[in-house]
Amino acid sequence: ETGVTQTPRHLVMGMTNKKSLKCEQHLGHNAMYWYKQSAKKPLELMFVYNFKEQTENNSVPSRFSPECPNSSHLFLHLHTLQPEDSALYLCASSHLGDGYTFGSGTRLTVV
Amino acid sequence: GENVEQHPSTLSVQEGDSAVIKCTYSDSASNYFPWYKQELGKGPQLIIDIRSNVGEKKDQRIAVTLNKTAKHFSLHITETQPEDSAVYFCAASESGAGSYQLTFGKGTKLSVIP
Prior knowledge:
The complex is a heterodimer. Chain A is mainly β. In chain A, 0% of the residues lie in helices and 58% in strands.
Protein backbone atom coordinates (compact mmCIF):
# COMPACT_ATOMS: atom_id res chain seq x y z
CA GLU A 1 0.00 0.00 0.00
CA THR A 2 1.58 3.26 -1.14
CA GLY A 3 -0.78 5.68 0.55
CA VAL A 4 -2.61 6.40 -2.70
CA THR A 5 -5.65 4.19 -3.20
CA GLN A 6 -7.39 3.78 -6.53
CA THR A 7 -10.72 2.07 -7.15
CA PRO A 8 -11.76 0.06 -8.96
CA ARG A 9 -8.65 -1.93 -9.91
CA HIS A 10 -10.29 -3.21 -13.08
CA LEU A 11 -13.15 -1.80 -15.13
CA VAL A 12 -14.81 -2.99 -18.31
CA MET A 13 -17.26 -0.57 -19.85
CA GLY A 14 -19.20 -0.20 -23.05
CA MET A 15 -18.82 2.84 -25.26
CA THR A 16 -22.16 4.24 -24.15
CA ASN A 17 -21.59 3.76 -20.41
CA LYS A 18 -20.76 6.36 -17.79
CA LYS A 19 -18.36 5.39 -15.03
CA SER A 20 -16.02 7.07 -12.56
CA LEU A 21 -12.55 6.29 -11.29
CA LYS A 22 -11.70 7.24 -7.73
CA CYS A 23 -8.41 8.17 -6.11
CA GLU A 24 -7.76 8.89 -2.45
CA GLN A 25 -4.60 9.98 -0.62
CA HIS A 26 -3.99 10.71 3.03
CA LEU A 27 -0.34 11.67 2.74
CA GLY A 28 -0.95 15.37 3.24
CA HIS A 29 0.06 16.09 -0.34
CA ASN A 30 -1.20 19.22 -2.02
CA ALA A 31 -1.09 18.13 -5.66
CA MET A 32 -2.87 15.26 -7.39
CA TYR A 33 -2.54 13.96 -10.94
CA TRP A 34 -4.16 11.67 -13.48
CA TYR A 35 -1.87 9.83 -15.90
CA LYS A 36 -2.70 7.47 -18.75
CA GLN A 37 -0.35 4.55 -19.39
CA SER A 38 -0.69 2.72 -22.70
CA ALA A 39 1.50 -0.04 -24.08
CA LYS A 40 4.76 1.22 -25.63
CA LYS A 41 3.99 4.88 -24.84
CA PRO A 42 5.37 7.23 -22.21
CA LEU A 43 3.25 8.07 -19.23
CA GLU A 44 0.83 10.72 -20.46
CA LEU A 45 -0.15 13.47 -18.07
CA MET A 46 -3.86 14.19 -18.26
CA PHE A 47 -4.73 16.54 -15.42
CA VAL A 48 -3.05 18.28 -12.50
CA TYR A 49 -4.76 19.64 -9.42
CA ASN A 50 -2.97 21.86 -6.93
CA PHE A 51 -4.87 22.61 -3.72
CA LYS A 52 -8.08 21.46 -5.46
CA GLU A 53 -7.59 23.84 -8.38
CA GLN A 54 -6.98 22.41 -11.82
CA THR A 55 -3.70 23.74 -13.13
CA GLU A 56 -3.08 21.52 -16.14
CA ASN A 57 -5.27 20.00 -18.81
CA ASN A 58 -3.10 18.44 -21.47
CA SER A 59 -5.57 18.63 -24.37
CA VAL A 60 -7.58 15.74 -22.98
CA PRO A 61 -10.85 14.96 -24.82
CA SER A 62 -13.99 16.12 -23.06
CA ARG A 63 -15.17 12.52 -22.60
CA PHE A 64 -12.74 12.55 -19.65
CA SER A 65 -13.90 14.87 -16.88
CA PRO A 66 -11.89 15.30 -13.66
CA GLU A 67 -13.22 16.36 -10.30
CA CYS A 68 -11.30 17.27 -7.16
CA PRO A 69 -13.69 17.97 -4.28
CA ASN A 70 -10.85 18.29 -1.74
CA SER A 71 -7.11 17.83 -1.57
CA SER A 72 -7.45 14.15 -0.62
CA HIS A 73 -9.83 12.94 -3.32
CA LEU A 74 -9.71 12.93 -7.08
CA PHE A 75 -12.18 11.49 -9.56
CA LEU A 76 -12.11 10.86 -13.28
CA HIS A 77 -15.56 10.71 -14.83
CA LEU A 78 -15.78 8.75 -18.06
CA HIS A 79 -18.49 8.84 -20.72
CA THR A 80 -18.84 7.71 -24.34
CA LEU A 81 -15.29 6.37 -24.42
CA GLN A 82 -13.60 4.76 -27.41
CA PRO A 83 -11.74 1.43 -27.55
CA GLU A 84 -8.45 3.35 -27.88
CA ASP A 85 -9.08 4.77 -24.42
CA SER A 86 -8.37 1.34 -22.98
CA ALA A 87 -5.29 1.74 -20.78
CA LEU A 88 -4.01 1.81 -17.22
CA TYR A 89 -5.10 5.02 -15.51
CA LEU A 90 -2.78 6.08 -12.74
CA CYS A 91 -3.41 8.57 -9.99
CA ALA A 92 -0.50 10.19 -8.18
CA SER A 93 -0.01 12.77 -5.48
CA SER A 94 2.94 14.89 -4.44
CA HIS A 95 4.02 17.66 -2.16
CA LEU A 96 5.24 20.82 -3.83
CA GLY A 97 5.87 19.04 -7.14
CA ASP A 98 8.54 16.67 -5.88
CA GLY A 99 8.54 12.86 -6.06
CA TYR A 100 5.18 11.41 -6.89
CA THR A 101 3.44 8.65 -4.99
CA PHE A 102 1.42 6.58 -7.43
CA GLY A 103 -1.57 4.39 -6.84
CA SER A 104 -1.79 0.91 -8.34
CA GLY A 105 -3.96 2.12 -11.18
CA THR A 106 -7.27 1.20 -12.75
CA ARG A 107 -7.03 -1.13 -15.74
CA LEU A 108 -9.76 0.15 -18.07
CA THR A 109 -11.09 -1.84 -21.01
CA VAL A 110 -13.57 -0.20 -23.36
CA VAL A 111 -15.61 -2.66 -25.41
CA GLY B 1 8.57 22.06 -22.84
CA GLU B 2 10.79 19.39 -21.35
CA ASN B 3 11.69 16.28 -23.35
CA VAL B 4 13.22 13.20 -21.71
CA GLU B 5 14.88 10.44 -23.73
CA GLN B 6 15.61 7.09 -22.08
CA HIS B 7 17.83 4.23 -23.26
CA PRO B 8 17.84 1.32 -23.68
CA SER B 9 14.19 0.31 -24.00
CA THR B 10 15.03 -3.25 -22.93
CA LEU B 11 17.97 -4.59 -20.96
CA SER B 12 18.85 -8.16 -19.99
CA VAL B 13 21.60 -8.91 -17.49
CA GLN B 14 22.82 -11.97 -15.63
CA GLU B 15 22.12 -12.09 -11.93
CA GLY B 16 24.96 -10.43 -10.07
CA ASP B 17 25.96 -8.16 -12.95
CA SER B 18 25.41 -4.41 -13.05
CA ALA B 19 22.73 -2.59 -15.03
CA VAL B 20 22.90 0.99 -16.29
CA ILE B 21 20.00 3.02 -17.69
CA LYS B 22 20.61 6.44 -19.21
CA CYS B 23 18.40 9.48 -19.69
CA THR B 24 18.86 12.85 -21.31
CA TYR B 25 16.73 15.95 -20.82
CA SER B 26 16.30 19.10 -22.84
CA ASP B 27 15.30 21.87 -20.41
CA SER B 28 18.31 23.33 -18.61
CA ALA B 29 15.94 24.70 -15.94
CA SER B 30 15.08 21.17 -14.77
CA ASN B 31 16.54 20.52 -11.34
CA TYR B 32 14.83 17.42 -9.99
CA PHE B 33 15.36 13.92 -11.41
CA PRO B 34 13.52 10.95 -9.89
CA TRP B 35 13.62 7.30 -10.91
CA TYR B 36 10.64 4.96 -10.66
CA LYS B 37 10.32 1.18 -10.69
CA GLN B 38 7.10 -0.39 -11.95
CA GLU B 39 6.42 -4.05 -11.28
CA LEU B 40 3.72 -5.98 -13.07
CA GLY B 41 0.25 -5.00 -11.92
CA LYS B 42 1.47 -2.09 -9.82
CA GLY B 43 1.92 1.63 -10.19
CA PRO B 44 5.41 3.16 -10.48
CA GLN B 45 7.26 3.51 -7.18
CA LEU B 46 9.93 6.10 -6.46
CA ILE B 47 13.25 4.35 -5.82
CA ILE B 48 15.75 7.21 -5.82
CA ASP B 49 15.96 10.85 -6.83
CA ILE B 50 18.62 13.49 -7.28
CA ARG B 51 18.63 17.26 -7.35
CA SER B 52 20.84 19.43 -9.49
CA ASN B 53 23.02 20.58 -6.62
CA VAL B 54 24.64 17.12 -6.32
CA GLY B 55 26.36 14.90 -8.87
CA GLU B 56 25.77 11.48 -7.38
CA LYS B 57 23.55 9.77 -4.85
CA LYS B 58 23.64 6.18 -3.56
CA ASP B 59 21.20 3.98 -1.72
CA GLN B 60 22.55 0.47 -1.13
CA ARG B 61 22.76 -1.20 -4.57
CA ILE B 62 21.24 1.74 -6.43
CA ALA B 63 23.02 4.91 -7.49
CA VAL B 64 22.14 7.85 -9.69
CA THR B 65 24.58 10.21 -11.37
CA LEU B 66 23.84 13.60 -12.89
CA ASN B 67 25.82 15.61 -15.44
CA LYS B 68 24.16 19.00 -15.66
CA THR B 69 26.47 20.29 -18.37
CA ALA B 70 25.65 17.41 -20.68
CA LYS B 71 22.04 17.24 -19.45
CA HIS B 72 22.06 13.56 -18.75
CA PHE B 73 21.55 11.34 -15.74
CA SER B 74 21.91 7.61 -15.18
CA LEU B 75 20.66 4.85 -12.90
CA HIS B 76 23.14 2.22 -11.81
CA ILE B 77 22.07 -1.05 -10.17
CA THR B 78 24.86 -3.27 -8.87
CA GLU B 79 24.70 -6.97 -7.93
CA THR B 80 21.38 -7.35 -9.70
CA GLN B 81 18.84 -9.80 -8.36
CA PRO B 82 15.78 -11.38 -10.03
CA GLU B 83 13.51 -9.10 -7.99
CA ASP B 84 15.09 -6.12 -9.76
CA SER B 85 13.26 -7.22 -12.92
CA ALA B 86 10.75 -4.47 -13.71
CA VAL B 87 10.20 -1.42 -15.88
CA TYR B 88 12.23 1.62 -14.82
CA PHE B 89 11.27 5.21 -15.66
CA CYS B 90 13.36 8.33 -15.37
CA ALA B 91 11.76 11.76 -15.08
CA ALA B 92 12.68 15.42 -14.89
CA SER B 93 11.06 18.58 -13.61
CA GLU B 94 11.74 22.14 -12.51
CA SER B 95 10.84 21.59 -8.88
CA GLY B 96 10.02 24.57 -6.72
CA ALA B 97 9.28 26.93 -9.56
CA GLY B 98 5.53 26.47 -9.41
CA SER B 99 5.64 23.68 -11.96
CA TYR B 100 4.02 20.47 -10.80
CA GLN B 101 4.66 18.43 -13.89
CA LEU B 102 7.12 15.56 -14.16
CA THR B 103 8.13 14.59 -17.68
CA PHE B 104 8.83 10.86 -17.96
CA GLY B 105 11.03 8.81 -20.25
CA LYS B 106 9.50 5.90 -22.15
CA GLY B 107 10.81 3.31 -19.73
CA THR B 108 13.37 0.49 -19.71
CA LYS B 109 12.29 -3.10 -19.22
CA LEU B 110 15.01 -4.75 -17.14
CA SER B 111 15.20 -8.53 -17.02
CA VAL B 112 17.60 -10.17 -14.57
CA ILE B 113 18.36 -13.73 -15.60
CA PRO B 114 18.99 -16.13 -12.70
